[in-house]
Amino acid sequence: MTSAPTDTSVTRPRSEFDRDIAVARAEERSDELVGTLSDGWRVGGGINGGFQMSLLGNAIRATLPAHPDPIAMSAYFVSPAVAGPVTAAVRPQRLGGRTATVAADLKQGDDVRLTVLATYGDLDSFPADDVRTTATPFDLPPRERCVPNTMAPDDVQKMAPFLQRFEMLFHPDEIGWAVGEPSGRGQVTAWFRLADGREPDPLALLLAVDALPPVTFDLGLPGWAPTIELSAHVRAKPAPGWLRLRHRTRNVAGGMFEEDCEVWDSADRLVAQSRQLALLPR
Amino acid sequence: MTSAPTDTSVTRPRSEFDRDIAVARAEERSDELVGTLSDGWRVGGGINGGFQMSLLGNAIRATLPAHPDPIAMSAYFVSPAVAGPVTAAVRPQRLGGRTATVAADLKQGDDVRLTVLATYGDLDSFPADDVRTTATPFDLPPRERCVPNTMAPDDVQKMAPFLQRFEMLFHPDEIGWAVGEPSGRGQVTAWFRLADGREPDPLALLLAVDALPPVTFDLGLPGWAPTIELSAHVRAKPAPGWLRLRHRTRNVAGGMFEEDCEVWDSADRLVAQSRQLALLPR
User: Fold this and answer.
1) Which residue range forms the structural domain that includes residue A63?
2) Which of B116, B119, B250 is opposite residue A135, by nearest beta carbon?
3) What's the whole-model pTM score?
4) Which of B100, B113, B111, B33 is nearest to B67 (CA)?
5) Which of A162, A208, B121, B231 is the most exposed place for a label (fewest CB within 10 A)?
6) Residue B89: beta bridge partners?
7) A126/B99 CB distance under 8 A
8) Smallest CA–CA separation between B7 and chain A, in Å?
9) How many Å lie between the alpha carbon of B133 and the closest alpha carbon of chain A?
10) Is B8 within the bounds of a domain?
């Protein structure tokens, strides 16, 4: 459907994340970018949604030289994505000024997998000295007291190769679901970094907000929880080092639940917030 | 630009809200609906964003007979809307099944004012008996102890005719900003109903989540706070009667703040949640 991409990247990808979100302009369709969803980001039958957001976010970044950073992205997952080639189409809605807004689709063949609206800007140009946040970091024990994702059984690792892309160290009080003893709090908290040590940046935060297991696991509701909508806000460029993630739900009702995610960086800043609405596992 | 609309409504609008969100199919463009933004929903120089969401939400509803209720809507405000004619274009992304997803634009002439992604469904078909919410209603004194919006000075009422569309009764501890004494909590809580007594429904909830003054007023930051993105989730059809709304922010940083809104109905159910990212007033 598309010819071999013209590789316009000027730097050698430094990590599996950078390699796998890479896009290039399609030769014969100047308004589309092409990339590949690697099987390594699969969870069960589909490619993880946050990873799709990162790849599409990278395609948007490539079209907005003056506005390199995702600030807000609202993602609607239209059909399950599988490993293989993808095309990204980006349609500017408003350019110029402090922020730019676009609509964008990630497609496989003629099927839209993910459609988003997003606002980008240059986070370095935003004021850094007006922090008046009242949010405080959540409780998370030191890493040596947390439970690593590498303890997941072989069959789980095989079902979700996605897990091997990260180091995740779970709060010991919120990992009981892994052995059939969910806490019932509706909360999953973990230390998080990319497995190959690649440092976090705004594109990686789009992945981070959808990386932990569904918070419904902690409510004793295992199984796939299809996302209806996920909106992520990137509030600052994260400092190098480990991230801390918390997924939480407060409102399980009507066959749906909301999942709020906070991402804190090593400098104790709330660098990303997201909320998704998802269907309860059936 | 468009000829007189063919009115296809079968019921007489019962309220100013129903009258003002009404849309009709344009004769010569079957893929577009036409309506009018009434000056009554203006705040300062622009028409309120939540009202725009309700009108566009009504246009989406008109195109999705099997999926009448907004469940999730993510709104990006592309340019300020003024009183006058609007057209709504709805592009299906995924139809069929339990939910349908669309992209939609609200335009004035060739200028897009608002672009959204939205998922609709039939809330009556969602389970009603699986409520496991841990959220609890916020503190709000009885209505007779709250401060009504009708106390706003004449010049404010004139600047924002929007205010006259509602009865809003503010928490007495969170209205100090109106007399130059903001609480600094970053919270605004109020009783809320449409001024003409029209009962709440899912479309009115899209309006409710953006109806209160910006939460930055309570931080001593008066002025317009432009919305970057607002995502609303409608979780249930509201019961008749007063709604209770709370806007709150926890993370003021980088020249931006998030504003979370909860809407509780008279049956003590959390019927809508929203989050918006906005720029701090300059």
Assistant:
1) 16-123
2) B250
3) 0.94
4) B100
5) A162
6) B32, B105
7) no
8) 30
9) 4
10) no
